[in-house]
């Protein structure tokens, strides 16, 4: 890979020009009285030397600039082999190699952009913890989930749970089910951590997947299956009992039986048994509604008019109990099934009205507010409240604390809310009483 023809001809030309300039300079010096010619001849010699040096070192300068550009990662530059520089074939080979390198870099950059977008769009929150204990929210799901922490240290995440902060600070990998305080309520999450090597440094990747909604849905499905099986088996056993009781009641009602007081007692007992058996059958048939999964027909609707209609229905049934209504912001829209959600609120308002019955100054409130990840609906009363030990049981099928209660309303309310992908919980109202909160 020797010198190219253009460089060689240029070199010969500059050497010849230098030789001519030297001969002219010698002749001018040897001839007396040619002082001006001597100066011109010396200038020509200097110019020829400069031109020859420029021509010889051009390749070195071009190569030095090229190597400097490559050192800084500029693969868009070209190796300029023209203008008299040598190594033309070398320049062509280097330019071809640069083209291939640039194509490989473009592919790598495209793959990296794809992976970045894939990680950022993952539905599971992803965090990274470096060797210094600095935490970074690695994707959009993590940034949506962890908004209360205003620092990057592991201890800053204790606002979500002390156990979670310790898990972030731990140096080991593993999987754990934790309870975190997210969106103002306790939620079960699955936390997985793994150790990674990145550029010679160890990093831990921690994924956080909320599973409370899934657990709620599984629990509701198990309850409905249990109710379905129980009602089916009880009805199968109750049907012949009802039939035999009716038959016995008819037999004991025949007029030709001897007038025995014991027969009258038996007749009354069997008639009562038949009545209760039929009543229990109707009761179980009615409870089969608990075993039917509600069909959600979602639509967007304005929250304020919907709340006004609920308030009017409540006032018609309980005119003596004041109901405060608040929707923030005023133009808030809900994405839900308005009919099923209204049934949930009617049940909650009725329960609240019954809880404040007999209170000297009953107070109820219905609040609907926009949340960071959706909307919240609260029903609050100033009744006796619900003891902490019963706050999970009140949503179970057939559980009730009232003699006239059926234990179905709150369970159906939870089924409807869970079918919406939301959650319902009960706690203490700020002024005393109970507060049911629905998160959609």
TrEMBL record:
It is found in: Membrane. Its main location: membrane. The chain crosses the membrane at residues 7-29, 35-53. One of its GO terms (biological process) is phosphorelay signal transduction system. Pfam families: HATPase_c (PF02518). GO terms for cellular component: membrane. Residues 61-106 form the HAMP domain. Its EC number is 2.7.13.3. Keywords: ATP-binding, Kinase, Membrane, Nucleotide-binding, Phosphoprotein, Transferase, Transmembrane, Transmembrane helix, Two-component regulatory system. This is histidine kinase. The lineage of its organism: Bacteria, Pseudomonadati, Pseudomonadota, Alphaproteobacteria, Sphingomonadales.
């Amino acid at each position: 890979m020797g010198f190219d023809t253009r460089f060689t001809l240029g070199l010969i030309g500059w050497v010849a020009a230098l030789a001519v300039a030297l001969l002219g300079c010698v002749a001018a010096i040897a001839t007396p009285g040619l002082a001006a010619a001597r100066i011109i001849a010396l200038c020509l010699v200097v110019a020829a030397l400069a031109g020859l040096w420029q021509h010889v070192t051009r390749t070195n300068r071009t190569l030095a600039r090229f190597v400097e550009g490559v050192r800084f990662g500029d693969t868009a530059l070209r190796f300029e082999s023209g203008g008299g520089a040598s190594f033309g074939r070398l320049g062509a080979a280097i330019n071809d190699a640069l083209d291939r390198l640039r194509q490989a870099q473009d592919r790598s950059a495209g793959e990296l952009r794809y992976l970045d977008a894939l990680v950022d769009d993952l539905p599971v929150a992803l965090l990274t913890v470096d060797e210094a204990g600095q935490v970074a929210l690695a994707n959009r799901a993590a940034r949506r989930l962890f908004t209360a922490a205003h620092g990057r240290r592991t201890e800053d995440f204790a606002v979500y749970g002390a156990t979670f902060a310790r898990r972030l600070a731990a140096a080991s990998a593993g999987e754990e089910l934790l309870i975190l305080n997210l969106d103002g309520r306790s939620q079960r999450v699955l936390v997985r951590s793994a150790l990674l090597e990145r550029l010679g440094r160890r990093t831990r990747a921690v994924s956080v997947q909320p599973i409370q909604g899934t657990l709620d849905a599984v629990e509701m499905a198990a309850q409905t299956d249990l109710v379905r099986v129980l009602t089916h088996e009880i009805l199968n056993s109750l049907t012949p009992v009802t039939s035999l009781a009716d038959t016995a009641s008819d037999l004991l009602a025949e007029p030709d039986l001897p007038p025995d007081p014991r027969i009258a007692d038996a007749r009354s007992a069997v008639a009562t048994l038949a009545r209760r058996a039929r009543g229990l059958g109707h009761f179980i048939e009615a409870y089969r509604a608990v075993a039917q999964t509600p069909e959600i027909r979602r639509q967007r609707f304005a929250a304020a008019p919907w709340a006004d209609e609920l308030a009017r229905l409540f006032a018609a049934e309980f005119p003596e109990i004041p109901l405060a209504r608040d929707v923030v912001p005023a133009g808030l829209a809900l994405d839900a099934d308005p009919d099923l959600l209204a049934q949930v609120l009617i049940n909650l308002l009725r329960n609240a009205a019954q809880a404040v019955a007999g209170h000297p100054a009953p107070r109820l409130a219905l609040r609907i507010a926009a949340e960071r990840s959706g909307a919240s609906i609260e029903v609050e009363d100033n009744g006796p409240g619900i003891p902490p030990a019963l706050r999970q049981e009140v949503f179970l099928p057939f559980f009730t604390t009232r003699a006239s209660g059926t234990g179905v309303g709150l369970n159906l309310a939870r089924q409807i809310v869970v079918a919406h992908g939301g959650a319902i919980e009960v706690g203490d109202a700020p002024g005393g009483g109970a507060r049911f909160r629905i998160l959609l």
